[in-house]
Amino acid sequence: MYDYLIVGAGLYGAVFARQAKERGKSVLVIDKRPHIAGNVYTEETEGIQVHKYGAHIFHTNNREVWEYVNRFAEFNRFTNSPVANYHGELYSLPFNMYTFNKMWGVVTPEEAEERIEEQKKNAGISEPRNLEEQAISLVGTDIYEKLIKGYTEKQWGRPCTELPAFIIKRLPVRFTFDNNYFNALFQGIPVGGYTKLVENMLEGIEVRLGVDYLEKKEELDGLARKIVYTGPIDAFFGYRLGCLEYRSVRFETEVLDMPNFQGNAAVNYTDRETPWTRIIEHKWFEFGKDAEGNELPRTVISREYSAEWKPGDEPYYPVNDEKNGALYEEYRKLAAQENRVVFGGRLGEYKYYDMDAVIASALAKAGEELE
Length: 371
Ligand code: UDP
Known about the structure:
Helix content: 25-40%
Largest sheet: 7 strands, mixed
Radius of gyration: 22 Å
Number of helices: 11
Bound molecules: uridine-5'-diphosphate
CATH topology of the domain at 2-40 and 55-77 and 187-243 and 319-370: Rossmann fold
Order of helices and strands: EHEEEEHEEHHHEHEHEHEEEEEHEHH
Structural class: alpha/beta
Strand order of the largest sheet: 7-6-12-13-14-11-15
Strand content: 15-25%
Oligomer: single chain
């Protein structure tokens, strides 16, 4: 009999497992995939750490979380600065003075602010009620049309007028020349990959892979006093109130016989016509070098395509609109009655969590539980 059965070996599960183990609890971690690390899983190809389920750049303002992850990995100095490609025109992201200069030829912050103010006024927006209005009120119509609208509609498969404003607020808007995508005190990529980081968290903890919890729920429930479930909350309840919607992502990954394909880790294709949302060139997360510091002759790229989730696909992004929010609320009430089960993580809480927030949430929950 274990104290905890942890369903899912992603960040939430691994952090909870580590904390429980350190408080002397017995822990079993299971995952239905053949590997640990959930969607932060990385795998080496051609000396390059490939982010198999999409690019993950660790960034946080939370010192406690930063110190915590640094116990398990060393972080490099990678700073995310994606480039936007709109029909072959390149722009700096996030929206900053380099972007405004390229878009309008403006040179000073005051000129840029005037442009945005004018476009916002012409669009007649005072209180933004959705993503489109929020975007226009932050950066004006030109940037909305070229850098936001197409990308967002591809990524979410919904018109910007039907998406919540908070999604675009994830991105900073700056009137300085600063291409750092995140407003974070701490940022980097774990040297040697995320899989290694999670492996270190799980050191000394029993892990069983290729085990599908929901298929053998009764038997597995018998193994532990408490369950930490990090899978989709609607799946846990057999979708009895209906399906929550997710966006899924499909990757087409290629090894190319050239040292440099696009000169940057991430290029976003912000027009509506290009079918992929972005291309990741993985070697640039580690400055194009292998563990010994040698330049790598080849490169690995992943084209990312966004799709509506259907049963059998991997869920990636919860669709946090009103309809799904209301349904999640009903599932949350059911979850609250499950005294032996803790629901956590992006899927367990149906929340668009960043990695640092997931870790903070797992640390807080473990703190409460293990008091
Ligand atoms: N976004 C955009 N254009 C871009 C990049 C992002 O319009 O070139 C918008 C889009 O709506 C997206 C949101 O900003 O859903 C958040 O982007 P982020 O990079 O945080 O998404 P993630 O990395 O989590 O996929």
